[in-house]
Design a protein that fits this description.
Residues 33-123 form the ParB-like N-terminal domain. The chain is α/β, with parallel strands linked by helices. It is built from 13 helices and seven strands.
Length: 290
């Protein structure tokens, strides 16, 4: 098989090989054969690290009852064995069912393509958690020089979906772990982007502990941001003191005798002015006094 062909064509050939397996029993590139499961080595570049045991058991039971509908894909190594390119769940399910052999499509592909096929196969055909999916996208883009648009076409996702998923890798490792364990959703993660790690942890713990919806979490983040950006209020405002007005008692009485309204309490001394005449009275009094 020419190495220059596109990935889509390559996967198409694997499917064609499977459909023609009944009439092609010879061992050649892309043929379907029964392989000893112990001869197949896991792909070291497999992005998926967590496998749901219950789902594996369901798949295992289905394979025992109905047989394997989709063969795994392998490539030969230089030691007489095979390296798994795609289909780790199927291989694990076979081993769980104590089946000795598994249907496999053998492809001839350069080492560099091994990771690309494994990543795309998992993205398209299995439920990676959102963080594993994000790392798979990042690996394809960074290691295989694939643009967001190209990746979108290959995995049948929207460009926006891929970009939003990749942004989750900007979150702290603490929040990423909560996302990987499905304790919070990708929607929750999205609203924490841009927050400091400590604040992310606080929000994530609140979401999980209080079972907050995305909208409720948005409100929480908005309140925390406003609180952080709000100038700190002076905690210790000057307390109002009460003063002793006895030294001014004579002045107060004299002003009152002039029909002026005077008020002295706590920390202020107030003379109410109701007319120009009041101003002249005050002026005369203080002028004569001082």
């Amino acid at each position: 098989m020419a190495l220059g062909r596109g990935l889509g064509e390559l996967l198409g050939e694997v499917e064609t090989a499977y459909s023609n397996s009944n009439s092609n029993d010879s061992k050649s590139n892309n043929s379907i054969i029964e392989l000893d499961v112990n001869l197949i080595k896991p792909n070291p570049n497999q992005p998926r690290k967590i496998f749901d045991e219950d789902k594996l058991k369901e798949l295992s039971d289905s394979i025992v009852e109905h047989g394997l509908l989709q063969p795994v894909t392998v490539r030969e190594d230089n030691k007489g064995g095979y390296i798994l390119v795609a289909g780790e769940r199927r291989l694990r399910a076979h081993k769980l069912a104590n089946l000795d052999t598994i249907k496999a499509a053998i492809i001839d592909i350069e080492e560099f393509k091994l990771r690309e096929l494994a990543l795309i196969e998992n993205i398209q055909r299995d439920d990676l958690n959102i963080i594993e999916l994000a790392y798979s996208y990042a690996q394809l883009i960074n290691e295989h020089s694939i643009t967001h648009d190209e990746l979108a076409k290959r995995v049948f996702k929207s460009r926006t979906s891929i970009t939003n998923t990749l942004r989750l890798l900007q979150l702290s490792s603490y929040v990423q772990q909560m996302l990987a364990n499905n304790k919070i959703s990708a929607g929750h993660g999205k609203i924490m982007l841009g927050l400091e790690d400590e604040l992310q942890k606080k929000v994530a713990d609140s979401i999980y502990g209080q079972k907050l919806s995305v909208r409720e979490a948005e409100t929480l983040v908005r309140e925390l941001k406003n609180s952080k950006n709000k100038p700190e209020e002076k905690i210790s405002k000057k307390e109002k003191k009460s003063y002793d007005f006895k030294p001014l008692q004579t002045a107060i009485e004299n002003l009152k005798k002039s029909n002026l309204k005077v008020k002295a309490e706590k920390n202020y001394f107030k003379i109410e002015i109701r007319s120009q005449e009041d101003i002249e009275k005050i002026s005369n009094y203080f002028g004569n006094t001082f």
